[in-house]
Amino acid sequence: VLMDVPTASHGTLRTAPAVKPTPKQAAQFSGSKRTATVFVRVRPALEFLGEAGDEILPGLRTSSAGQGCVREQQLRQQSEQPRRDAPDATAGVAAMLNSGNMREIGGFTGVCGMGEGNEIVFERTFRQCVPTVLRGGTAALFCYGYTGAGKTHTVFGVESDRGMYHRAATELLRLIAAQNAAAGDAGRPGGPLRLHASVVEVYNDGVFDLL
To answer: Where does ATP bind (predicted)?
Structure first.
């Protein structure tokens, strides 16, 4: 589940308290009708399941295209181009089509296919939310699913395929550095932009600071 919630009071990443939205930006945030964007990510079948004869459910959509979808061959060409500052506008994608006894399950922003790594998933789903944080808003990202669905791989990833948190932090730091370089320390009231981060665990109605 990928969320871009400008009016939320919390977020996984946020700028220093000195960075506040202008009155105009605050009005835009408070009056925003943008809701959460929800993507389904289809995990590849595990090898031992294939050996056992298990197959993908008939009617399961294993990928979807749409506005904001960036394919692998486009990544290198578009890596230096400006990003859209808005969530993927596609809506109403069905992850499960009517098939046999399975009813249609739809209403999703999109479906990330089995062949799409974390880089492509980040480009499709969350990169366009990061500038909201730089403007003083918040953007929250979380994954929901059963044990073994691939949540940890999506948010943390591995060294060769970094997850959403690493990519979001890298993109935010890149934007901060670019803005600081453009404005210059001397020309910005209060000095350069800085990043403050916190890592907490919510478990059994308790909040634990992991730093």
So the answer is: 145-152
